[in-house]
């Protein structure tokens, strides 16, 4: 899956989670459109760092972390509710449910709009099942197992309880976003 399709997949999964959580189709679509832009800040990060096949140095990781702030700045002229959602998603999609255990900026996702967590879990899932220069793609089963293990730390339990069956059972998810044969 290329990066454009990955961003679309993150948006689609975030939209489906929003629908699962009772958002109107219009609001869920808005979340999808905002979610597609979640990594726009990476466009200003060196490909040499993003495509590095080895572990990042602390300085390189600090540069990568900045993609969230850069993305929010790049979207500063986007107005209205969509613009606000897109900026918040860019800035905060790496925050954890339990911030003492991870995340970029030390904020707990439990105090952020829930749609940011929709993007977060979708982004992690798509990243895990996608090949990267520094890792092989994971199986769907392994990616879902990882997400289950992160319930209560990286993600809230309810989010995981909604996400896992969505991936396993929802017929609206196109095959291109699903895992190759296990």
Textual characterization of the structure:
This protein is mostly helical and 182 residues long. It has a single domain (3-174), classed as Hypothetical protein af1432. 55% of the residues lie in helices and 0% in strands. It contains 9 helices and no strands. It is globular and about 40 Å long.
Write a brief caption for the model.
The chain has 9 helices and no strands. By secondary structure, the chain is an all-alpha fold.
Count of DSSP E strands?
A: 0
CATH homologous superfamily name? Answer: Hypothetical protein af1432
Question: N-to-C terminal Cα separation, in Å?
Answer: 16 Å
Poorly predicted spans: 178-182
Largest beta sheet, briefly? none
Strand-helix topology:
Blueprint: H1 3-20, H2 25-35, H3 47-50, H4 58-65, H5 67-74, H6 80-92, H7 114-129, H8 140-149, H9 157-169
Helix pairs in contact: 1-2, 1-7, 1-9, 2-6, 5-6, 7-8
List keywords for this structure.
single chain; 182 residues; mainly alpha; Hypothetical protein af1432; globular; disordered C terminus
């Amino acid at each position: 899956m290329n990066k454009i399709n990955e961003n679309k997949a993150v948006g689609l999964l975030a939209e489906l989670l929003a629908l699962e959580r009772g958002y109107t189709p219009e609001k869920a679509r808005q979340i999808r459109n905002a979610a597609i832009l979640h990594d726009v800040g990476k466009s200003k990060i060196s490909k040499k760092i993003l495509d590095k096949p080895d572990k990042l140095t602390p300085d390189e990781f600090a540069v990568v972390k900045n993609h969230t702030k850069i993305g929010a700045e790049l979207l500063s002229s986007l107005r209205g509710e969509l613009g606000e959602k897109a900026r918040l998603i860019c800035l905060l999609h790496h925050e954890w449910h339990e911030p003492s255990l991870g995340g970029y900026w030390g904020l707990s996702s439990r105090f952020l709009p829930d749609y940011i967590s929709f993007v977060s879990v979708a982004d992690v899932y798509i990243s895990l099942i996608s090949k990267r220069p520094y890792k092989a793609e994971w199986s769907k089963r392994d990616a879902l197992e990882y997400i289950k293990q992160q319930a209560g730390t990286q993600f809230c339990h309810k989010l995981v309880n909604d996400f896992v069956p969505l991936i396993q059972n929802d017929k609206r998810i196109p095959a291109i976003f699903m895992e190759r044969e296990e």
